[in-house]
Amino acid sequence: MRTLAAILLAILSALIVVATSPAAPNAPEVAMQPPVKGFDIRPCQDCHRLPNTNTNEGVRAANQLCLECHGQEACAHQEKGRKVSLKVDVDSFGPSRHRFVACLDCHYDVGRSPHASAQGVQCLSCHTYHGEGDFGGPHLSVSCEACHNKSKLVKLDKKQGRVGLAKVDAKGIPLSLVDHGKSDYTGEQFCLRCHVTGNQAGAPAQVLPAKGFICFLCHTASFSAGGPWLGAGLVIFIIGLLVMIRFWLQGRVQGEEGSLHNKIARGSENLVQVFFSHEFWRILGAFVLDVLLQRRLLQESVQRWFVHTLIYWSILTRLLLGVFTWLVWQAGPGSDLAVALIDKNHGFSAFFHDFTGLLMLLGVILSALQRVVFKPKNVDTNTQDALALILIGLIALLGFVLEAVRITLISLPPAQGVYAFVAYPLSRLASGMAVDWNAAYVWLWYAHGILAAGFVAWLPFGKMRHVITTPISLMMNRDLK
Amino acid sequence: MPDNEKTPGTQGSQEVTAQPAEVEPAEAQEIQTETSPSKLEKSQVPEQTQDAAAAEAAKPARPKVIPVSALDSKRIMQLQACTRCGECLNWCPVYDQDGREDILPRKKAADFLKILQSQHGLLAKFAGREDAGTLAKLVGKVLGYREVTDEQIHEFARNLYECSTCGQCQIVCPANIDTVNLWEEIRRVLVMADYGPLEQQKALVKSVKSYDNPWQQPRTARAKWARRATKEKLIADTPKDIKKKGGKILLYLGCTASYDTNVRQVAVSTVNILDSLGIDYGILGNNEACCGSVMLRMGDPEFERVAKHNIDLFNSLGIEALITSCAGCFKTISEDYPKVGCLNFEVMHTIQFLTRLLEQGKLDFKQPVEKVVTYHDPCHLGRASGVYEEPRIIMEAIPGLELVEMPRNREYSRCCGAGGGLKAGYPDIQNKMAQERVREAVATGAQELVSCCPFCFQGLQVGISAIGSELVARDLSFFVEEALGVAPKPEQKKKPAPKAAPQAAGTPMEAAAEKVEDKETEPKEE
Question: What is the mean pLDDT of residues A178-197?
């Protein structure tokens, strides 16, 4: 009797294995056969229960069920006449904490009939997106597994506008993606699965540095140097600033003519005193009215105020939004607001950046017209003035070109593209051109970045230092009529 | 000249600038007896500058070092706050007469910045040194180091002094650069480095140092106007000496109203007004000394000494308030003295004082003054001190008086060019500026051009004479006196003064010369 039972159990087990195996040639779509009714060898609760996956025990119990099949060598399915293994190697979870995570916590839509995943693995139910500083940008349209999975074949899904793992290799041979081991993403080598010439992911043909600190001027960025060029710009800017302040400090400070040390002491003492007095409100008033709203310029000339404000407020609002985005991100990485703000393709961000960029360009053009065509008698253009306009204009222009190329590369759908009302039409134009945009993007990016770095580096030395000195003057002379 | 020997200025000036002190004794005599500042300009200056130029051509002098530590650091910062936008070009009253870019605030700021950078900038530390090696020089050149020559600094000084420090540029400056203080402080360091003031202006400064007034008149003659006015029955009695008899209010007359017979009306009217209102006031008489405005505007570092002396004197009087009818003195005492020392009294322009009395209902204008006038805001009263409305309130209150504004009024009032040493340094430009202002006044259809400043009175008079206008320059105190009905009988005697000028018409120089002669003959009579 015992022997009979043992034999029966063995047969049944074999039957289940065979039944769940997709090897059944007739029904490749149905991954798993429903349990045959009438048998009570196995309690229903073995499968139909909800183990507490918050405990290691629960995880183990839940995973055991999955591994009953997916632990078997024979677990595979047929695709295009080829057998693709579905056997999960438990050891490939390695030392990662994922070995304490239930399969169903990631593959959450497979625990039903039919046994297939419609949405794939859901990393974002636990993890957040990368911020602006990591890996040169947020990579919002790149699925996690595109980088974190060991499979190196990555592809842009043009319908979804997302970069994910390729299901077939270059020759059309289906790939098995069961390896749960993490790719080694230290070092730049791993970026090369996308960032190479002729990639399928719509990525630039080279790894570009993250946006550095100086990029805050117009974009949300990170507190990093951002590669040698941007870093050099920042360093020269800081040196220039120090040299400038040192130059001012050759004069008296609060009547102190002696050592630099004393001057700094007196100066900062006075600064603190003024700041923590009722004067603070008057300084604030001057800051709002004179610095932010440019009241004094408006009093003299509405036209000049308008042109200046086009450039000034475009940059200022971009700077403010960039800093705000950074703060929101720090407060809650991955929050809906934070993700919407760092998403360049989000309707608001796309519109905002195109709009301010356009105003900036308009300001530069009007200003250039004043200087070159209309030439009112008070306008005298020297190299510094020309350089300032050319730099700002070029940087803004290249910004638009860059955005257009990016949109071309990622094949942004028109429904999303409409918000980028300048860059999207440009991208249509670009996609019609026979240019290797993956490679061109790199060059354009460096041109934009290096010009911006140059602009920032030049800031304390030339005409543009007025963005530092003039506000100080306005706040300092708040009492003057 | 008994006062000449112990000039309080000499010691101080030796400390800071050697040159003016050296020449002083010899030249002071000459100026006093023979010539006026404006004459001096015509006769001596071209030769001197040529000589200087010739001397420099012979040996390329290394520029003298500008004492940067004497500048306030915020001034240096503000040099860099200029964006060269050129708003100053649209408004500068001097530029309207001499359209040279070099005299524009934006250019002066840039030029002085270049001078400072060539001497005190980071690059100057190695590339600008006399013993700098070829490599250092080359590196400096690549990084943009530019040397500034001695002659360029002289040139800059000439441009800097071609400015009446009227403050119009500051009003219109979108960066709100405190230009007046900037120009004055730069002038001060230029004087310290012996680049200023201009030869033509030295007499003025020297006169203040020697005689405590810029008009080369003896100290003892300061209160003479009062004695004469009493004799002529223009005023009831000589005002009491505040030092001896005390008083709640000090009437500070200022040099111009005290010494210039053409402007004497200002002093006379003020005294009559105060007398009629029964104000407890007094004057300093011969103890009054120049407020030092001339020195401050032209950058003489001795201003501080003059200011200190006056502050101590004023503070010792135990007065409640100091009032003055001179906008220049008012600005200097109320705005500039507090930087030197504390004042224990209130400082008011007479017009402010009268406005206060008017508001208290103590002024009763019973005599209508049927005149159409226009008002010229003095730079020092308006832009520098923010007193725009008080004179208009007074004029509004005077029955019959109709005020027609000029297109440029209040903070945009066009400077007549009399201040800041411009009249001494560049008389013809001042003349043209005054003409421009007078033409503006004439265009309003007004009969009289009213102001609140003896300096403006002088300056505008130059313009009136030059274009032979029928317009009469007036100090507002004159109308107040008339409206109060307090002017003593022999009013006719006062009239010749303003009328004398249009007769002299001809060239401005003649007019100016005539005026000075007028002044000079006066003290000699005694």
Answer: 82
Q: How far apart (Å, rounded) are the C-alpha atoms in residues B40 and B448?
A: 32
Name the one residue in this structure whose structure tokens are 């074999």: A14
Let me know if residue A75 belongs to a domain: yes
First-residue to last-residue Cα distance in chain B: 14
Which pTM value belongs to this model?
0.82
Which residues does residue A142 pair with via DSSP β-bridges, in sequence order?
Answer: A163
Same domain, A105 and A226: no
Q: Which long-range contacts (CB under 8 A, 24 or more apart) does A140-144 make?
A: A140/A339, A140/A342, A140/A343, A140/A344, A140/A345, A141/A345, A141/A410, A142/A194, A142/A201
Which residues does chain A have within 8 Å of residue B86's beta carbon, measured at their own beta carbons? 377-380
A156 shares its domain with A241? no
Which stretches of B92-133 are DSSP H helices? 93-97, 105-120
- Could you give the CA distance from residue A32 to residue A117 in angstroms, rounded to a whole number? 13
Pick the CATH number of B68-192 from 1.10.287, 1.10.1060, 1.10.8, 1.10.730: 1.10.1060
pLDDT higher than threshold 50 for residue B332: yes
* Residues of chain B neighbouring A377 (CB-CB closer than 8 A): 86, 89-90
A144 within some domain? yes
Three-state helix/strand/coil letters over B324-361 = ECCHHHHHHHHHHHHHHCCCCCEEEEHHHHHHHHHHCC
pLDDT at position B50 over 60 = no
Question: Is the CB of A354 inside 8 Å of chain B's CB atoms?
Answer: no
Query: What are the residue ranges of CATH 1.10.1060 in chain B?
Result: 68-192
Q: Tell me whether B503 touches chain A (CB under 8 Å).
A: no
Q: Does the interface ipTM go beyond 0.90? A: no
Structure tokens at A228: 């040698």
Residue that is last in its domain, among A173, A207, A241 = A207
Give pLDDT tens digits for B373-413: 999 999 999 999 999 999 999 999 999 999 999 999 999 99
**Same-domain check for residues A104 and A203:** no
Residue A444 pLDDT > 60: yes
Inter-chain residue contact B87 with A473, CB threshold 8 Å: no
Q: What is the enclosing helix (H) or strand (E) of A165?
A: strand A162-165
Residue A379 lies in a domain: yes
Using a CB–CB cutoff of 8 Å, tell me whether A246 touches chain B: yes
Select from A74, A107, A123 the last residue of a domain: A123
**Dihedral-angle region of residue A294 (phi above 0 means left; psi in -120 to 50 means alpha; beta otherwise):** left
**A467/A374 same-domain check:** yes
Residues A290 and A310 in one domain: yes
Contact partners, residue A103, CB within 8 Å, separation at least 6:
A62, A63, A66, A70, A110
Q: Render pLDDT for B267-277 as a digit per residue (tens, 0 to 9).
A: 999 999 999 99
The neighbour count for residue A100, using CB atoms within 10 Å, is 13
Token pair, residue B185, equals: 């402080």
Closest CA to A346 of A426, A420, A396: A420
Beta bridge partners of A168: A174
A271 touches chain B (CB under 8 A): no
Number of folded domains in chain A? Answer: 3
- Please give the pLDDT value at position B62: 84
E strand spans, B341-488: 346-349, 371-375, 401-403, 448-451, 472-475
**Is residue A230 over pLDDT 80?**
yes
Determine whether the interchain pair B73/A466 forms a contact, defined as Cβ–Cβ distance below 8 Å: no
Beta bridge partners of A79: A82
Residue A149: give the domain boundaries: 128-207
**A226 in the same domain as A339:** yes
Structural tokens at position A116 = 């297939």
Confirm whether A481 is domain-assigned.
no
Is A248's CB within 8 Å of B177's CB? Answer: no
Do A113 and A172 have their domain in common? no
> Are residues A22 and A143 both part of a single domain?
no
